């Protein structure tokens, strides 16, 4: 562990580290911010292009699955070759994935662009590679806090891009808005130059590096890592459903369509302090216990929202509560993995855990789209959200702390 009086003291860190944290936050902000806008296109694309809501809903479900499958690979590449190079390539994939359906609208291009290309793009530019670089750059006593601070960057993007996208859709249409967002994603390329552009130092471990498959097999045989991974499924299930379908649910309840964008913006604003605070919490308590508390709070909020009569104020209160813990699971999960296995392969191991998150996201977004198409309402989905959240609380509280935490 670094000496308290060294360059990584509790109060002072080098400027280069702060620049890396800021750049990681900026990349996460753009990548996660743009995917938070997908739900805003659900009904406008149906009106403008005659695309069934199930097309975009299914594309977003595929996006979550591809993101999950790509995250272990992009994380392993970042661990070996540097996060910045991975992020720059992901920027190009994101831009192409948004531009393709904008230029050639149709079911096939929607699935290929939104579903496959943006899924791979977010896997490279979002939390996995960027937060692994942050975890390697900061000392253990500040790792959770700094990862939480970088995670909060995703909330800036959500808070900014959601209302911008809503305004652009109203003024220029859905396809033109997709084109503009595609151009904006190219800004990640220069940002990536400041995030671990060279391969990480080999001092994190001696001997040959294990393969991704070997890492995954070793980690998943650890009972408590397996429990952590199972709990992350619920996170993806709940958040993907809300990101994709909350604006439509609000509209179907007879509330103003603008409230959907406002709810997503409120989630982003409240998650800015929430992510940082959740990262700080990992310095003082077992991350798995904090994760269980987050899942329980989310589940109580979902139950209250589902049972209460639809209202403007109630929707914003629900968004504020959910927003406070929206991305708080990310720094806590990263901290839990680092304590068990160290940081040399943090990107790859976070990706293995995150695959479970995205399998949940695939089911949450996809089944919500199918339910809307067949029943015309989301009423049957809320009890499932509650049960999944309670299960995640239980499995995280079953996890034991590591016998010896690793720096």
TrEMBL record:
Domain of life, source organism: Bacteria
The record's PROSITE patterns line, in alphabetical order, gives: MFS (PS50850)
Sorted alphabetically, which Gene3D superfamilies does this protein's record hold? Answer: MFS general substrate transporter like domains
A Pfam family cross-referenced in the UniProt record is MFS_1
Query: Major facilitator superfamily (MFS) profile domain: which residues?
Result: 19-404
The GO terms this record gives for MF are: transmembrane transporter activity
Q: Membrane spanning segments where?
A: 50-70, 82-104, 110-134, 171-192, 225-247, 259-278, 290-308, 314-337, 349-372, 378-399
The record's annotation in InterPro entries points to: MFS, MFS_dom, MFS_trans_sf, Proton-linked_MCT
Give the matching CDD domains: MFS_YcxA_like (cd17355)
Tell me yes or no: is Cell membrane among this UniProt entry's keywords.
no
Q: What keywords are assigned to this protein?
A: Membrane, Transmembrane, Transmembrane helix
Query: What is the name listed in the Swiss-Prot or TrEMBL entry for this protein?
Result: Uncharacterized MFS-type transporter
């Amino acid at each position: 562990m670094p000496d308290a009086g060294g360059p990584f003291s509790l109060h002072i860190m080098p400027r280069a580290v702060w620049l890396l944290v800021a750049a990681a936050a900026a990349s996460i902000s753009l990548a996660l911010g743009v995917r938070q806008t997908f739900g805003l296109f659900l009904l406008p694309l149906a009106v403008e292009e005659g695309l069934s809501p199930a097309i975009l809903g299914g594309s977003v479900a595929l996006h979550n699955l591809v993101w999950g499958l790509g995250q272990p690979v992009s994380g392993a590449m970042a661990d070996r070759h540097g996060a910045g190079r991975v992020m720059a390539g992901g920027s190009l994939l994101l831009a192409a994935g948004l531009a393709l359906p904008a230029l050639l609208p149709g079911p096939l291009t929607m699935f290929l662009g939104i579903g496959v290309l943006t899924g791979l793009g977010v896997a490279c530019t979002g939390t996995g590679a960027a937060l692994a670089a942050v975890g390697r750059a900061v000392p253990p006593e500040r790792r959770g806090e700094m990862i939480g601070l970088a995670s909060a960057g995703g909330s800036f993007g959500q808070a900014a891009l959601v209302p911008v996208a809503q305004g652009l859709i109203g003024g220029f249409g859905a396809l033109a808005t997709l084109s503009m967002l595609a151009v904006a994603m190219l800004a990640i390329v220069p940002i990536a130059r400041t995030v671990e552009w060279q391969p990480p130092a080999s001092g994190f471990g001696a001997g040959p590096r294990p393969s991704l498959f070997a890492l995954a097999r070793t980690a998943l045989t650890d009972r408590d890592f397996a429990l952590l991974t199972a709990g992350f499924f619920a996170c993806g299930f709940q958040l993907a459903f809300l990101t994709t379908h909350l604006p439509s649910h609000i509209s179907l309840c007879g509330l103003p369509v603008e409230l959907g964008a406002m709810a997503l913006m409120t989630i982003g604003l409240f998650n800015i302090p929430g992510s940082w605070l959740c990262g700080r919490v990992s310095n003082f308590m077992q991350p798995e216990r904090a994760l269980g508390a987050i899942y329980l709070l989310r589940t109580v909020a979902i139950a209250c929202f589902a049972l209460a009569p639809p209202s403007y104020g109630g929707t914003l209160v629900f968004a504020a509560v959910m927003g406070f813990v929206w991305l708080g699971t990310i720094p806590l999960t990263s901290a839990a993995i680092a304590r068990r296995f160290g940081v040399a392969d943090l990107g790859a191991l976070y990706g293995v855990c995150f695959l479970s998150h995205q399998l949940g996201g695939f089911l949450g977004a996809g089944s919500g789209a199918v339910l809307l198409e067949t029943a015309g309402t989301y009423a049957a989905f809320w009890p499932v959200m509650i049960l999944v959240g309670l299960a995640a609380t239980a499995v995280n509280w079953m996890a034991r702390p590591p016998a010896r935490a690793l720096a």
